[in-house]
Amino acid sequence: MEIAHEYAKLRSDFGRQCLFSDRHVELLVDMPPNPKLAVQFCVKDTRDFGVQGCWEMSEHEVNTERFEYDNQGINHVEGGWPKDINVLEMEQTIRFRKKVEKDEIYMNSVMLLGPLIGQCVGQNNAVDIYQEYFQNEELLDEIQETPSVKFVNKFRDQNKVKRNITNLSWQSSGGSNLAGAYSCLELHKVPADLSKDSYTWDIENPNQPLTILKPTSQLICLAYNPQDLHCLISGCFNGQIVLWDERVGQHSVGLSTSEHSHMDPVYKIKWLQSSEAFSASTDGQILWWDIRNLSEPTDRLILDLSRQDNLDNALRAVSLEYNVTMPDTFLVGTEQGAVVYCNRAAETPAEKIVYTYDGHHGPVYAIQRNPFLSQNFLTVGDWGARIWADDIKESSIMWTRHQTAYLTDARWSPVRPAVFFTVKMDGWLNIWDILFKQNDPTLSIKVRDEPLSSLQVHEGGRMIASGSQLGVITLMEVSSGLCTQQINEPNLVAEMLEREAEREKILRALRVGEEDENSDEGPRELILKPEFDFYNLVESEQRRKQWESRQKHYP
Fold first, then answer.
1. Residue 184, domain extent
2. Within 10 Å of residue 100's Cβ, how many Cβ atoms?
3. CA 20 to 30 Å from 512, out of 66, 141, 478, 534?
4. 289 and 207, same structural domain?
5. 227 located within any domain
6. If you write DSSP's letter for every residue of 189-252 in order, what string do you get?
7. What is the per-residue burial (b if ≥16 Cβ within 10 Å, else e) of 413-449?
8. What's the average model confidence in pLDDT over 125-129?
9. Domain-embedded: residue 38
10. For residues 322 and 307, what is the distance between their CA atoms, to the nearest angstrom?
11. Is the distance from CB of 163 to CB of 196 less than 8 angstroms?
12. pLDDT value at position 136?
């Protein structure tokens, strides 16, 4: 309620009315300074003193009695019917309508109101009065702001001997819990009293873990169930698969048998659905598991490129990627630098390995498909990150410059198809926006002095968690521009990647054509051809200069 108060004053209290007019300048008094009075003047410090230039008045506020209003409405279903017409009787209403429609007054009213109604309809069709003209104004401001990262929290290992954080997993469905796998992979540095515990954290409480997981062997990887918010599955250093339920406590609710598990550490595990998962290990096997019975795997694949199912020739798997939009296919990153494209729906084990992508000189530590463009995926290995297309096996379509330190992990932004994140051994986090620039990161942040080993992005795209080799999880928040999708961004990224894929196809065709042309020539001819081309070029240049000099002397 608006309260107003009016101060009233009589006109007679204002004094005599002032009447101003123009007049010439006139000197009234001239007082020259007196030097004798200057001796008596005492210099004092400056002081400020406030004086109120109006009368002091008090004010009192009184609220009137509140009147309560009640909104009521009438639902007018059938209107304008006479009292002698029963609305529920269809025959009476039809008879009355026909009678009214034949009335001349009704016809004249319709003829008069028709043009007015048509004009209103035309205005509504021409101008949308409900259109929001400035709905994208805030979005443009967010996109144009300078990218930045804010540090939110740090979660430290509870043990004296600090261990490496090899994997991180956010709680699904936008949850606020974060799980970390703590382990020491360097066997010669493992002390006798090294703890095997791993933790789940509430991001609002960095002082105490939410749950302490106590496995029989160190956890290398873990993942939250996409359907059950409190269920986790993990892979151990001894090759076993462990199932956890945060509601039960610190002890596992399921464990695979040693004789039917991996023979080497399980470096990556992924959920297929709420009750099925599959794991990858450096023993060269991909195993599928049903969490309702972990006694033995439901399926097995050996990464032998010769298709002979020989474990001695199998590639060592260190990373996995699975997308629900492509349920029968998955990608495996190996220690040898190759990415294996597999199809589980194939009839024989030999047909399950479709083809490979070769582009890294070291282990492929991370691999992930773009959440918006599933035909493109990101890999990290050695000193760079690469973007691939499914239908181009010979080379990647985009890649970053070689960094000064090894890259250890990478993730796409779940809300922006053009943005991905990488972490390195020198403790830096790089944020890349391929729509903005491709050669250099959009933003680089020094997170820790020790190497960063793992990275995970929250489903909302704003929170990032990175784990270090000394057991510290750093929680960061990116600026709104990095987690707000730009106008038409998916289409722009799709066009860019398609253009790069076409470029690679053209270059590949040119290389194949050159190889076919040179296939009939022996090695000696191939060596002498550049020398022959060089001397021909020198001779033609000499002839051109002689002709120019001749033209100068004999124009």
1. 149-481
2. 10
3. 534
4. yes
5. yes
6. G--TT----EEEEETTB-SS-SEEE--SS-EEEEEE-SS-TTEEEEEETTS-EEEEETTT-SS-
7. bebbbbbbbbbbbebbbbbbbbeeeeeebbbebebbe
8. 74
9. no
10. 22
11. no
12. 56
CA–CA separation, 471 and 370 (whole Å)? 29
* Cβ(170)–Cβ(456) below 8 Å: yes
Domain tally, the chain: 2
Cβ 365 vs Cβ 407: under 8 Å: yes
How far is residue 401's CA from residue 522's CA, in Å, rounded to a whole number?
36
Q: What is the mean pLDDT of residues 366-370?
A: 93
Joined together, the tokens standing for residue 176 give 């606020």
| Residue finishing a domain among 464, 481, 498 | 481
Average pLDDT estimate for 41-60: 71
Q: For position 77, what pLDDT does the model report?
A: 59
Same domain, 450 and 361: yes
Clarify whether residues 185 and 231 are in a common domain: yes
Domain presence at residue 11: no
pLDDT level of residue 7 (50, 70, 90 thresholds): low
* Residue 81 within any structural domain of the chain: no
Instruction: Indicate the residue type of 550.
Output: R
| Burial state string for 23-36 with b = 16 or more CB within 10 A and e = fewer than 16 | eeeeeeeeeeeeee
442 and 355 in a common domain: yes
Angle at 380 between CA 152 and CA 494, to 5 degrees: 90
Query: In terms of pLDDT, which residue wins out, 423 or 160?
Result: 423
> String of b and e for 319-345 (b: at least 16 CB within 10 Å)?
bbbbbeeeeebbbbbbbbbbbbbbebe
CATH number of the domain to which 469 belongs: 2.130.10.10
Q: What is the identity of the amino acid at 155?
A: F
Is 404 in the same domain as 516?
A: no
Amino acid identity for residue 234 in this structure: S
Q: What values do phi and psi take at 480, rounded to 5?
A: -65, -30
Query: Are 270 and 399 in the same domain?
Result: yes
Q: pTM for the complete prediction?
A: 0.67
